[in-house]
User: Fold this.
Amino acid sequence: MSSSHCFQNPPKLNSGIHVAGTVQELGGLSSYVTGSFDSKLALILVSDVFGYEAPNLRKLADKVAASGFLVVVPDLLYGDYADLFNPQFDRDSWRKAHEKGKAWEDTQPLIADLKRKGIKSIGAAGFCWGGGVVIKLAISSDIQAAVILHPGPISDDEINEVKIPIAILGAEVDHLFPAERLKQVEEKLSSRSEVESFVKLFPGVTHGWTIRYNDDDEATVKSAKEAHQDMLNWFIKHVK
Assistant:
């Protein structure tokens, strides 16, 4: 994650917005949980570098839960979120401390806990850093469907190893995952007839737009809502 786009426009964690869910421990992870455990369908939302407390991420979790899913937003960063206001914050050290392979391993007890609680089908969405975790879930067949929004780096090998339906939603202005790379990934996925895929470029928006939008930016909010609906439609189709 060499691009500064990963670390731009941090959310206000103390915004005081009303949310419907609660923080619980699942699989050893502090998690924002919304929706009902009576549902047999669950979605895991994996945050970007700013963590699971981001208000827009929790609002999205509530919105998706209203469609009948149990939604879990785990704290895979263990409270160690990117802190741009701390002059001592070192991006390189932070990246090394939060390698996506380790985060994928940490999802395994969570998935097992959900299954023990009666969940029959699981989808996962990842945002930027979280996309790197979700691509590993898509390779391992731990889940039934995946969505990655404004991805971090994804290798060709990872794309070639995906085993489940996957959607990738990208921004037109993205130094980390530019439109040219999104097109390459679309072509690779399209050549794999055994894996259903959906790739979409959103014009006029920048990396992180789906959860770091400003409510006053009507165009970006509209685009974010469109991406949210695309994500939800994918999960309704494949997590059942």
